Amino acid sequence: QVQLVESGGGLVQAGGSLRLSCAASGRTLSSYAIGWFRQAPGKEREFVAAISWSAGTTTYLDSVKGRFTISRDNAKNTVYLEIHSLKPEDTAIYYCSNSRFLSGKIGLYEYWGQGTQVTVSS
Q: Hey, which bits of the chain come out as E strands?
């Protein structure tokens, strides 16, 4: 079993930046792809970004390309999501999860953290 803990969220002004972290315990993340998802109030959870186990391949939601960067440090068992030029519509709870596949399909992801809240004020 994998335990995932997200952190790094907060309240920021539009145009600001954040770096979210996803720390794992219980099992190494190095053999899994890791994805970040977000869920805004009243909306379904949506895919944001994912990174392959080797960090050689990444994929992003089209609307965040150029502003979001996913990376990982397998030695620290941690995956990061850097968010720049934050917009009010980025306000959501951000979650990370593991998958055996590099995918944007939520059904392919296994374990989930509790999420970290990102709130962007205009």
A: 3-7, 10-13, 18-25, 33-39, 46-51, 58-60, 68-73, 78-83, 92-99, 109-112, 116-121
Structure tokens at 111: 């374990």
pLDDT tens profile 28-86: 777 899 999 999 999 999 999 999 988 789 999 999 999 999 999 988 999 999 999 99
The order of strands in the sheet holding 68-73 is: 3-7, 18-25, 78-83, 68-73
Residue 17 in contact with residue 83, Cβ under 8 Å? yes
Question: For residues 114 and 6, is the Cβ–Cβ distance under 8 A?
Answer: yes
> Position of tokens 């030695």?
75
